[in-house]
Amino acid sequence: MSEGKKIALVTGANKGIGFEIARQLGGRDITVLVGARDLARGEEAIQKLRAEKIEAVLVQLDVTNQTSIDAAAAFIDQAYGRLDILVNNAAISVGEWSTPPSQLSLEDLQKTFATNVFGAFAVIKAMLPLLHRSQAGRIVNLSSEMGSLSINSDADSPIAQFPPTLAYNASKTALNTLTVFFAKELQGTPIKVNSVSPGYVATDLNGHSGYLTAEQGARVPVTYATLLADGPTGGFFGANGQIAW
């Protein structure tokens, strides 16, 4: 690995949008660290990426386990000494599609936040010292229009017509809050933090009901993961530009 080659960590990168983000970053001659909870699935993803001549390294990472997060950070520190790009992609939706808020279980809400919010928060905190060593650190939080309070409260919005998904939507709203406050803290540093919506992508999470492919959905996250120095920070963006909070 050359000293000038960027290092990117993508959480939940063994499949779906995360895998495609890793593939597209690797296609830009960036070393991709494939964060995966399941080693077997992660190894399968690594082999696919390497078959395309991408420099890919498997990092076992369970974003709900602090020991796992700390071990991943220690490995990156020892192997590379820095991190240039962090993409918080790992997310879940636990058995709540079409469940009215009053019927949603506290357990499902807690499980969703454990991965989508607390996991992202813990990973950012653990990786931040490594990102500070980068000349141009980038943090991309994979969000969704479903986390926009403006859109959800607009009765004419197509998203407002979706079945209720309180836990998932609220977790993305909270993730956007992380973006705002970490960006505020990091003002004056080379690190940029943005929330990005990939759009309605066909994934396991939505039963492959989305109309975009993973390849299409990965384009915007990759763009914001590789922003130039004059790019924005502390914003919420999609394929068509800025999204209302």
Fraction of residues in helix: 40-55%
Assembly annotation? single chain
**CATH level 1 class label:** Alpha Beta
Q: Would you identify the CATH architecture?
A: 3-Layer(aba) Sandwich
Taking all residues together, what is the mean pLDDT?
92
Low-confidence stretches: none
Quick one: overall form?
globular
Q: Which percent band covers the strand fraction?
A: 5-15%
Find the count of extended strands (DSSP E, 2+ residues).
8
Give a topology summary:
Blueprint: E1 7-10, H1 16-26, E2 31-36, H2 39-51, E3 56-60, H3 66-79, E4 85-88, H4 106-131, E5 138-142, H5 149-152, H6 166-185, E6 192-196, H7 214-225, E7 236-238, E8 241-242
GO molecular function: oxidoreductase activity, acting on the CH-OH group of donors, NAD or NADP as acceptor
Keywords: NADP, Oxidoreductase
Organism: Thermosporothrix hazakensis
